[in-house]
Amino acid sequence: MKRLAFIILPAIIALGHSIRPPIIEGTEADLHEFPYQVSLQWNFNNGSRPRHICGGSIINREWILTAAHCLEEFSGNGWFEVVAGVNNIADEESGAQRRNVTRYEKHESYDTNAIRYDIGVLLLSDPLDLNQNIKTMRLAKKDTLIREKIAKFAGWGSISKTMQDIYPDKLMKVNLILRTQEDCQQMGKHVDESQICAGGYKNVTGCTADSGGPLTVTVDDEQMQIGVLSYVLVTLAALIAAKPSRPKIVGGDQAIPHEFPYQISLQWNYNNGEEDPFHFCGGSLIADRFVLTAAHCVPSEISPDGFPEAVAGEHDFSQYDAAVQRRRIAEVYVHEDYEGGVGPNDIAVFRVDQPFRLNRNVQLVKLPEPNVIPTGDCTISGWGSTSFNIFPSYPDTLMKTTIPIMDLNVCREIYAMQEVADSNICAGTMEGTSSVCSGDSGGPLVQTENEIVQVGIVSWGGVPCGGYRNPGVFVRVSYFIDWINDKINN
């Protein structure tokens, strides 16, 4: 069954004023097919190659249009750069032009929670030299009547449909269906007069890192920009390039050491012992040789060198702890009905090669009785980013937060364009402020009223994390008790 995936974009009328989103199942753009397209990059001032973070469009020789949420600085000793006339960002064409950014402005009404007026402009250090491969983009006026039903979008976002993002070096393109505001409202997404909706089928869309890129239509045989890519839904284990982004708990507090003895860190070991392993997902210890996690956390090859591990007794990544126990993942069991990406049955069990030694800091978590529907407050834990913006800030220590379970029908209204199944539960508030996000995936959602019981597994949610009407969606563990027991016992 095909499902529509929608993108919320601020319309150009707002101009009165992971990272990187992916283009899924797009095609490679022809050389200089999009001469108005630019790559917004961050120069870390350390000799490394600048990193592509967002897209943008040329609105005149000195000014670039992008999304406001792209304009968050990585560090105080770096700067933004813009590259125009480029298709391959890893091997820039000879005619490409690079400029520093001297100033940028976000729309005065930009709201990070509601994602309104997510639009900004950048002033270049020197004007671009316009030519056949570098051109300005015509902008739609407030009263422009758009009769087209199909729009074009291009970007350098991930083309992967798995947990590990795969970023193309070459510009990708995709056609998207334009939708009315009424259509988008009916699909459960709140939009106002500054936003428009566009989308394709389930695997045809734009996502994190294509942010800021232009949405265009053809008017009188000329391309016209009508939108800027803002935010979309993402699974919670979006990973960046060689070392993907970790999960995040937004608005949480630091956990007490070993407060969550059942917490597992799923890590990629780069074949260098315990030095610098990469945490990519969470999990929970349900038997001495079995870890419960999300199906989309099943590790594809993060690096040609290395292997996945389950780590128990961990609290602070920056401190060596002899009590921490590491086990190789020997076998993976994914639910037979899981179809990948954002969807139901996002559950898996990992078997490790040697049993964990249970002690004060490494313990099993209790699972619920079959088919129990949890209510009330729950606690989540993980090592994810604590940042509310697109640039993550990862803590070394385990974080925690408490959120209420949301009525499933309310959650379905919010995420009407995605399937929230009976086997899911939702948790969070309409206002946001505390949430899970990209990569706390697989971690446990527990209730602690009389005893600690795991009721959920972190699966997916909306972005920005902790934002307005963006609750987390979890696998309801009680729905899968028979399946879990079958995998453990057989």
UniProtKB/TrEMBL annotation:
List where in the cell it is found.
Secreted
Major subcellular site: secreted
What does the entry list under GO cellular component?
Answer: extracellular region
Keyword list (alphabetical) reads:
Digestion, Disulfide bond, Hydrolase, Protease, Secreted, Serine protease, Signal, Zymogen
**Signal peptide as annotated in the record:** 1-18
Q: Name one Pfam family in it.
A: Trypsin
Q: Where is the Peptidase S1 domain?
A: 23-249, 249-489
Recall the GO molecular function terms of this protein's record: serine-type endopeptidase activity
Q: Choose any GO biological process term that the UniProt entry carries and state it.
A: protein processing
Q: Which PANTHER family match?
A: ACROSIN-RELATED, OVOCHYMASE 1
The UniProt family comment states: Belongs to the peptidase S1 family. CLIP subfamily.
**The protein, known as:** Peptidase S1 domain-containing protein
Native source organism of the sequence: Anopheles epiroticus
